UniProtKB/TrEMBL annotation:
EC number(s) from the headed UniProt entry: 2.7.7.87
Native source species: Castellaniella ginsengisoli
Binding of ATP, residues: 60, 152, 160, 211, 246
Subcellular location: Cytoplasm
Major localisation: cytoplasm
Single GO MF descriptor: double-stranded RNA binding
Catalytic activity: L-threonine + hydrogencarbonate + ATP = L-threonylcarbamoyladenylate + diphosphate + H2O
Annotated family: Belongs to the SUA5 family.
Descriptive protein name: Threonylcarbamoyl-AMP synthase
Chain positions recorded as L-threonine binding sites: 37, 69, 123, 150, 193
Keywords in alphabetical order: ATP-binding, Cytoplasm, Nucleotide-binding, Nucleotidyltransferase, Transferase, tRNA processing
Record PANTHER family: SUA5 (PTHR17490), THREONYLCARBAMOYL-AMP SYNTHASE (PTHR17490:SF16)
Keyword ATP-binding: yes
Length: 347
């Protein structure tokens, strides 16, 4: 049995399980594993057939890139054709951690990981199980530069998993031979990594923030001395950047605090069952069938709890989920990005 407790007292994968998972990756098979952001669905990043299994399992469009996860001691220069000084600065500041860098892809690396583009997304996760898996896999690779391509371990466009049981519920048709799932407790960050494009510096295009996350634009600017720009029309395609994404199956809507009372009243009058997620405190009594769900007005805690809560509410039989829109402050940018895309699926 595993002997190491993860977040929430959940046992983590033991060394034997880590070795078995690494061997499966080397055989071209799928392994789901925990990271500090969300759980990933992983395959050998140099094996196009294995990467194709990720896309098939997730029902993911072939032109939608995945992120390549590196062990802390792996040379990113094996995967990227160029590592500019700005990338080295950010790696030193935030790796291991929830920051993905988009860089020019090395010619030896299959374009399956980048959806046919000449760029590649690289990240070094900080979760100990992810690091142990990546290290064990690297040992099995001839050049010692093993890395794992891994989008979130869920059906494409749905809520990302932050626990191992979430992964199991997403892939009921894949048995233990088709998919091994490593346990590692609940993800600490809870939303996907920040994605920063540095692939076009040689063309005079500075850093571009393609997906906000736990590593904020302000923190990036502290390292680079400039704020990253907003996405432009020519920016590389990246994970999680579609207008509608991260969505539960129950219709989800956003509303400012001032509009909540009216929407709750209308839902009650219509006989709808609705969960209303509010910040800090419930406003008061609600009509029958309306349940208040309170989350703290803290962007870090909110992000950590968001996806697990959406999954819980999704399975509770509600007709609708209504979220109070968080503040528009920069520290909430990652959360606001995720819930805005989730709501867009029902617009």
């Amino acid at each position: 049995m595993p002997d190491r407790a993860g977040a929430g007292g959940v046992a983590e994968a033991d060394p034997g399980q880590i070795l078995e998972a690494a061997q499966r990756l080397a055989q071209g098979r799928l392994v789901a594993f925990p990271t500090e952001t969300v759980y990933g669905l992983g395959a050998d990043a140099e094996n196009p057939e294995a990467i194709a299994r990720i896309y098939a399992a997730k029902k993911r469009p072939a032109d939608h890139p995945v992120i390549v996860h590196l062990a802390p001691d792996t040379d990113p220069g094996y995967w990227a054709a160029l590592i500019p000084p700005q990338a080295r600065q950010l790696m030193a500041a935030f790796w291991p951690g929830p920051l993905t860098l988009i860089l020019p892809r090395a010619a030896r690396i299959p374009d399956a990981v980048s959806g046919g583009q000449d760029s590649i997304g690289l990240r070094c996760p900080s979760h100990p199980v992810a690091q142990r898996l990546l290290h064990a896999f690297s040992v099995l690779k001839p050049h010692g530069s093993g890395a794992v391509a891994a989008p979130s371990a869920n059906q494409f466009g749905q809520v990302s998993p932050t626990r191992a049981d979430h992964v199991r519920s997403e892939f009921p048709d894949l048995d233990g031979q088709a998919l091994m799932i490593l346990e590692g407790g609940a993800s600490e960050v809870g939303i996907e990594s920040t994605i920063l494009d540095l692939s076009r510096l040689d063309r005079g295009i500075g850093p571009v923030l393609l997906r906000p996350g736990h590593v904020t634009a302000a923190r990036i600017a502290e390292v680079l001395g400039e704020m990253p720009a907003r996405p432009d029309a020519a920016a590389p395609r990246v994970s999680g950047a579609l207008k509608a994404h991260y969505a539960p199956r129950t219709p989800l809507f956003l509303a400012d605090a001032q509009a909540l009372a009216g929407l709750v009243r209308d839902a009650g009058a219509a006989g709808l069952r609705m969960a209303v997620v509010v910040l800090d405190a419930a406003p008061g009594l609600a009509p029958a069938g309306i349940d208040w769900v309170v989350l703290p007005a803290d962007p870090v805690v909110y992000a950590r709890r968001l996806y697990a809560l959406l999954r819980e509410l999704d399975g509770a039989g509600y007709d609708r989920i209504l979220l109070q829109r968080p503040p528009a402050d920069p520290v909430w940018q990652g959360v606001n990005d995720r819930i805005t895309r989730a709501a867009a699926a029902f617009a």
